[in-house]
């Protein structure tokens, strides 16, 4: 009998920073762990001592989705020991929600229900739901033409933040673009961005992003934890967090999160994002993500059992033994040093910062490294994966040239749709 036939196996889809922490928990719980990857992914998980096997699969994009589905079916047929699929990358969460009927019935999909996933990832429907539920939302509008964008931006009020409809798309190399006034909007959106069926614009609330991680059962929160994002991998503060700190749960955010979870009837793990201006107190709901967060490990590291709860709830166990009144530790910093390096490289290559800005970035990154008690991809139990990721991009950072062109012009020239086949999963 081979090793993988001796115990249940979980297939993790998505190979990036969350994968390591999920794999560690599953391995500790006695599962055989397989991680899927395609040829374009950074193979950090390949070097993890908690990953038993790797499965090389086709790219998951619009054209090749059927090919991926065929490859997955063949792989599952060959591996009867696989009893669960745990998607950690959003594109796989979406694909599985749309293709659940193609997965054998005996295999558990470790993700909220398909209807929940589809609702939460529809930004417009979620903002409408949040507004109806009394959740604090800054004014927003949906536009499908350049003329509507110009007109509605005045109605919403500046500054505004502009986002694609889909979480999987990009505006240039960004998930969102902030425009301070109408002139800046005209400079950046001189033409309609290629490949975008529509855009969501919302009045931008300047402030600090707060992530609330939750475990919910039938619309009731069983566990809640909040972090405050202190730095990200983009100069303007959008993008992925590279540093954050655990803070006490904000009463207003707790109430809003419960409203959202209750309206949806949510079962599973997820995280909600808000922004709050620390000076004025103005706040707004951003989004609810029905999946693991990129900073998933920062919650696991202080005792929030996200991975185990996700497995239990997906398999129908609702009595998961959590005390909703439990408070997690506060004042603990986390950092993601690889994200800092990658963000610096991107900022340099896109001409968003010069030499002095790069030096300040490095200083902040070093400070994060020294004061953080939680490192999102590094533990002494499993030290090799982050080094594999760092080595891949270290040379590209060294050879990157400082560019003098205006960052807005560079962004405008590069503004086009980015789908999962040309956006590295590791940066999520």
Describe the structure.
The protein has 428 residues and is of the alpha/beta class. Among the domains are: 3-112, Rossmann fold; 139-203, ATP-grasp fold, A domain (Dna Ligase, domain 1, 2-Layer Sandwich), CATH 3.30.1490. The chain has 14 helices and 16 strands. It has helices at residues 17-28, 65-78, 90-98, 114-120, 123-132, 146-156, 182-188, 251-264, 296-300, 306-314, 337-349, 355-371, 384-399, 407-414; strands spanning 9-13, 32-37, 53-56, 82-87, 108-109, 140-143, 160-164, 177-179, 199-203, 208-217, 220-232, 241-247, 268-276, 283-289, 333-335, 374-375. The chain has a seven-stranded mixed sheet. The protein starts with 8 loop residues before the first strand and ends in a 14-residue tail after the last helix. The model is unreliable at 400-428 (pLDDT under 50).
Strands of the widest sheet, in order across it, are 14-13-10-11-12-15-16
- Portion of residues in helices? 25-40%
Radius of gyration: 21 Å
Which parts are unreliable, with pLDDT below 50 for 5 consecutive residues or more?
400-428
Mean pLDDT: 87
What percent strand? 15-25%
Named CATH architecture of the domain at 3-112:
3-Layer(aba) Sandwich
Order of helices and strands: EHEEHEHEHHEHEEHEEEEHEEHHEHHEHH
Characterize the main sheet: 7 strands, mixed
Q: What class would the helix/strand composition place it in?
A: alpha/beta
Name of the top-level CATH class of the domain at 3-112: Alpha Beta
Number of strands: 16
Gross geometry: globular
Distance between the termini: 38 Å
CATH topology of the domain at 3-112: Rossmann fold
The number of distinct helices, counting runs of at least 4 residues, comes to 14
